[in-house]
Each structure stands twice: as C-alpha cells, then as structure tokens.
Amino acid sequence: MINEKNWARELSQGLIDLNQLVKKGFISMHQTCELKPVIDHFNIRVPHIFLEEIEKSNEAISSQFLPSSNELNVLPEQLTDPIGDERWSPVAGITHRYPDRVLFKPTYMCASYCRFCFRRYKVSDSSNNLKKDDFLNAYDYIKKHSEIWEVIITGGDPLTLTDQSIASILENLSEIDHVKVIRFHTRILSVLPSRITMSLLDIFKKSNKSIWIAAHINSADEFTLECKNAIAKCVDNGIPILLQSVLLKGINDSHEKLISLFKKSIENRIKPYYLHYPDLAKGTEHFRIPLRHAIELIKNLRGKISGLCIPQLIVDIPGGEGKIAMHTHNATEVYENVWEFESSLNSSRIVIKYPNSI
Ligand SMILES: *Cc1c(COP(=O)(O)O)cnc(C)c1O
Ligand code: SF4
Fold first, then answer.
1. pLDDT tens, 119-164?
2. Choice among 97, 120, 122, 288 that is catalytic
3. Across all residues in the chain, what is the average pLDDT?
4. 110: annotated active-site residue
5. 98 catalytic per annotation
6. Which of 155, 162, 124 is nearest to 14 (CA)?
7. 148, 202, 256, 345: which is deepest, by most CB within 10 A?
8. Which atom of ligand 2 is nearest to the CA of 154?
9. Could you give the CA distance from residue 329 to residue 339 in angstroms, rounded to a whole number?
10. Do residues 250 and 116 lie in contact, with contact meaning Cβ atoms separated by under 8 Å?
11. Which of 98, 249, 253, 302 is catalytic?
C-alpha cells in the first residue's frame, strides 16, 4: 500500500543498545557499567515512536522501556517463571492450563522490551523461538485435544512475525475444526502501529476462525495518532480488540491515570478486559504497589465511570495455579436471603432482603 509505512524499518529504528541510549542522553556514560548486567539477562528495545516522549521526560513512557539498576534487585520470592507456564507445557511453545484454551508462543521477539515483563527470562532471546519441528508438534497437540476451542497466540509478540509466518500459522490452525477462536496478544498497536498493514488484515480476514486481538497498552499517552489509526483499521476490518494493561507504579497507579487510560480505550473502541497486577518476576519489584491498594483503585472506578470502561483486576497465582479475578466489591449473605452490600456510589453498607429464589 502506498501510504503504509515500512514497519520493518520502523522496528529497526528502535534503540537496542546502551550506547544508543547514551547518545540520546537517556542514560549517562557512567550508568552503562551498572546497566550492563541488566541487559545481559533481558535486551533493550526502546520503540522509535516514543523517542520524543522520552526526550520530554514523560515518565509514564520512559520507565516502561529504559533499563534501570532496580532490575538487579531480586527478591527471594521472585521467580524466573512466575506464573508457572512450564508446569503446564506438554510440548514446546504450548501452555495448556485451562481446559478449553492454550497459549501458543511461536516467538519471543517483541517490538519493545518492557522492563516489567513477566516472561523477561525468555523474552528477547531468539534461541527460545520455536523451530520447525516444534511448530509441527504444537499443531499436532492442538489437533489431538478436541477440548481446545481457543488458541491464544502470544510470546513474545506474535505480530513481529512476518506476514508469511502469520499466514502459515493461521492456515495450519484453520484445518483444526474444534478450534473456533484465535486471539493474538500483542503490544504492537502501541509500540509499532505501522505493523497493522492491509496485507496483515487481509490474512486475518481470510481465516475461517474468529480472530480477536488483546492489546497491551498501559497509559493514555500511548494512544498516539498512529496508534488510534491502527486500532480503527483493525476494528473497521472486523477485528474486535480487548485491552490488557499491567498496573504499574509511577505509570498508571492513580485513580485519574486509570480513568484516562480506560476512557481512551473505550473512545477508540477497545474494551478494557484485564488489569493485571504485576507477577513476581525477578527484578520487577519497583513496578509493584501493594495489592490492597490495587483493589482499592479498581473498586473506586465502579459507580464513577461507565461500566464499559472497567476491566477485571487479575492476579496470577505463582506456581501455575492460574488467574484470580479479584473481588472488588463486598457482598455477604448475613442471614438467609439477607445480604450486606457495599454501595459503589459512596461505600456505605446496605443490608437488604434480597431473595435468592422464589
Ligand atoms: C492467561 C492465560 C490464558 C487466558 O486466560 P483468559 O482468562 O481466557 O484471558 C490462557 N492460558 C493460560 C495458560 C494463561 O496464563
Ligand atoms: S511486549 Fe509483552 S512479551 Fe514483549 S517484553 Fe513487553 S510485556 Fe513482555
């Protein structure tokens, strides 16, 4: 397409080493020594689209992508595989924790390396990418498990793959009748919106499955003009989008910031789905706020802003025990058919007769 930017070129314009960060003035020369061990574990990729915001010291953007010596602070409770993906991995690239859906992780490359990433011990290392045989084994596993209704393609960022690779994955899945839904988990709408090309959307449209996108976006500032256009292009072409955000200290951990993020999302036709409490990934403590504050933050949205704007707060229990949707309102049955509710308008406690059945 004539007006479409070359996304591969834009991807290559991201900053991927410490010297580039020094040159831009994002870190000082003497910080390179202390940051070296940080990036030995987890590469840097600062997306080109945000360089200007980072120059303007927009911390909600810069702290997501610039490496920090805080990442060297590893607590005993922190894990390399905080949500237990490996425990539920029957073949390489597949995690099958819940009966009707699997995660499928073809690549561990991304268009940005987010410093809080819960898969940071695998992500950015290309040796973890699936090999040809792994793909065949993964398709074979999905084929043999007729309970799999949905395949969630994640990673890494699956939309950093070429059109050809994405088309091949969709073709292989299209032959499996029991798979009805394919969900792409991606960060590119924010960090590399030029990736949403008409040729990619044509590949999605050709699929005989329902394709959904779960977009990872954490702050209202990420809704650049390019991002909004990419979202509109997806939705206009029949791809529904959900928002998945991570609750991050200094980035979106206030009532006002969450409201503006979720409102922006709905204004752009993305439904807020999950707000993830950060997992216990090594070296990410500086991004976490206390869980009880997280519950208060999300609870305070109900009754204040449109219900469309409110996601569920999710905690993934360490060890692979799965997701918990945190209860953000209290309701207790005090006697039979008498309930105590907490009002979402003013937090007052209301005890009323509320019949359960007639
Ligand atoms: C998060 C996750 C899913 C998706 O869960 P939904 O609640 O359907 O969004 C599926 N499989 C695994 C292993 C997961 O961790
Ligand atoms: S895009 Fe997703 S998988 Fe990649 S580094 Fe960011 S959070 Fe991790």
1. 998 999 999 999 999 999 999 999 999 999 999 999 999 999 999 9
2. 97
3. 95
4. yes
5. yes
6. 124
7. 148
8. 3
9. 13
10. no
11. 98
**Active site (annotated) includes residue 101:** yes
Q: Ligand 1 pocket test: which of 81, 96, 98 has the largest number of ligand atoms within 8 Å of its C-beta?
A: 98
**Ligand 1 within 6 A of 148 CB?**
no
Q: What is the pLDDT of residue 260?
A: 98
| Residue positions counted in the chain | 358
* Separation CA 352–CA 332 (nearest Å): 11
Q: Kindly calculate the radius of gyration of the chain based on its CA atoms and give it in whole angstroms.
A: 21
Q: What would the mean pLDDT of 72-79 be, rounded to a whole number? A: 92
- Alpha-carbon distance of 192 to 110, in angstroms, equals 10
Instruction: Transcribe 57-84 into DSSP letters.
Output: T-HHHHHHHS--GGGG---TT-BSSTT-
The edge-to-edge listing of strands for the beta sheet with 349-353 is 331-335, 338-342, 349-353
pLDDT category, 329, cuts 50, 70, 90? confident
Which pLDDT value is given to residue 331?
A: 85
Tell me, in angstroms, the distance from the centre of ligand 2 to residue 61's CA.
14
| Token pair for 83 | 């949500």
Cβ proximity of 295 and 333 under 8 Å: no
Inform me whether the pLDDT recorded for 91 exceeds 70.
Answer: yes
Rounded to two decimals, the pTM is 0.95
Q: What is the pLDDT of residue 358?
A: 55
Ligand 1, residues 83, 152, 314: which to mutate, most atoms within 8 A of Cβ?
152
pLDDT tier, 3 (very low <50, low <70, confident <90, very high otherwise): low
Strands in the chain per DSSP E: 94-98, 101-107, 150-155, 181-186, 210-216, 241-246, 270-276, 312-317, 322-325, 331-335, 338-342, 349-353
In this predicted model, what pLDDT tens digit does every residue of 287-301 receive, in sequence order?
999 999 999 999 999
